[in-house]
Every structure is written in C-alpha cells, then in structure tokens.
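[step 3/7] fold_predict: job queued, chain A
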Amino acid sequence: PYYILLGILCAGISIYIIRVYTSFHKFYAKRKHPYLKTLTGGLSLGLLLFIFPSLFGEGYNIVEALLDGQYLILFDRSIFWEYKDNIYFLLIYGFIIMMLKVVATSITVNSGGNGGMFGSSLFIGALLGFVYSRVINVSGFHSLTEVNFIVVAMAGILAGVIHSPLTAIFLIAEITGGYALFIPLMVVVALSYFITIYFEPFSIYTKDIAEKGEFILYNRDRLILENISLQKLIEKDFIPINAKDTLGKFIEVIEQSKRNSFPVLDDKGTLVGIVLLDDVREIIFDRHMYSLVLIKDVMVKPPAVIDLKESMYDIVKKIDDLNVWNLPVVKDGKYIGFISKSNILSHYRELLISQTQHK
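[step 4/7] structure written:
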C-alpha cells in the first residue's frame, strides 16, 4: 500500500512540475527583451539560492548523498543549519526544496541559462521518496527502507514528467545495479504515468509544441485548422446597418440582402450588435412601426465576437461551444465581416483531401 500511495503522489508532483514549467515558459516567452529576461531571472534565482543553496546545480550530488543516508547535505551552506537536528523542520524543509526545484529550473532555462528537467526530475523524485518514507518512519506506522523509496520515487517522477515509463524503470534499475525492486518500480511508475497522462496528455517536452498545434501525432486536426487563413474565409456580403436607423430604412436594406443577419454599427464603424430577420419578422409588415422603431431597439448582442488575431483552432472551438453557424469578425472593435462554420468545414475538407493525396 505504501508504494501505491507513492505512485499517486508521484503523479501529483509530476502534474505540478509540468504545469509550473509550462507557466514559466509562457511568462518568459512574452518578455521579448533578452537582457530583461536575464536580469529578472538572475535576481529571482539568486534570491532562491541564497535561501535554499541545495537548489544549486542539477542536484546529482544530493541524490547520491540521500542514497547514502547523508541527508544533512540539504542544510549545507544553508541559513537554516542550526535546525538540522529537528526532524520536523527537516521534513518541511525537504518538501519546500522539492517544490521549489522546478521553479528554480524553470527560471534558469527560460531566462537564458543552461539546464533541463531530466536531472531535476531525479532530484525531486529522490526528495519525495526521502520525505515520504521518513514521514512514515517517524509516525511509527511502519519501518520503511528509505533508500528503496528514494529510488522508486525517482522512477515515478521521471515517468510522469517525460511520459516514458519503460525508460524510467530500466534506467533506475540500471542505476541501482539490480532488479530487486522491479515490482515496486512497475507499480509506482504505472500509477504515476497513467494518472499524469489523464490530466496532462503531453510530456514536459511536448506540451508547448502541442499547444501551438505543431505536434502532428496528436494534433492533426489543429495543424490543418492553423493552415486555414481567417482572412480568406471572411464573408463580407452581410449589409451593415446603423444603430440609429429606423425600421423603415432597415426594410430597404432587407430588399437588397440575401442574408438573414445584419451587423449593427455605430457612427465609428464599431460593432454594437446584430439584427436577425426572424426576430423582427412580426413587425416588419406593420407600416405604422417603420418610423417608430429604431434598430437599436431590436438588435441583440452576438453570442461571441471573433477577433482577427484569433487562431482558427480557437475560432472553431468557440463556434462549437456556442453551437452557432455564424459569428461576426472584428479588428480593434471595428466590424469586418462574418465567418461561418460551413465555410470553415469546406476549407478543412479541401486541405484534408490535399494532404491525403500528397502522401
């Protein structure tokens, strides 16, 4: 049961690692100035290393020390050295270092430094196994061999973070020089891997390219959609009307239009609503209303608006979620035209056929 719980914990920490690393990657990607990224990254990292020196480097020396039972290395050059003999402080301190390691690595990599998550995953796994087994030993529930849990947790974290369970099992088995822990390794790795991929289908290395639609193995639909130009799909034969126009003037527009939706604009060309023919059908035959009713009285807000900068994947998702066939397109609030689901599907089909024929 202790290995099963460890596998679940490994999955939770793996999900945390992937999401934190991805968040930092997105944050730094928005900062275009390289010197500013380096400066903020250096200052943040310097502060972390001053408080927690154990975060320095990839952490292989700490992993080796933990395997040898030398846990005091966690307090080496630390301002918390005087608390090294307090077992409760040790456990809290070890947990904090474990959670901050991914932060330190994310800052290092994304601000222009050298490093990666492979070594950090082993470091975090070793600390998780140590803290987990030490907590159980201190509680008195059971006497666990801490080295075994350190090794198995390393495999569990590695499997969850990089989504390579077999690599994790055989790598750790080779590092330990035997297969005595093969069954616990398989249990922890399997739990960590399958739980992690349920919440995070992509590994820490593939999540970024998958979100961009460039991971073809899993995102073929998205890749095709991103190749469709929004500009080419915009339909501009929807006749706009002014919010101040009367119903009588709207009748004249209806006679010229082949559409049943009409974008409503203000004097500056900003989209303020739409008029659907079905919504005014009852009053358009009442001539007494022609001069009394204004367009602003019968217009409605569109369920959503498409910005010209949006990706085609996001547009399709928005249309599907709202279960609509047409949405207005704007640029800086100014009306441009409409985009229809049928037009998107038509172009999607053409691209899909084209790609299939070229294989």
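[step 5/7] annotate
Residues 2-211 form a domain with the Clc chloride channel fold (CATH 1.10.3080.10).
The chain has 16 helices and six strands.
exit 0
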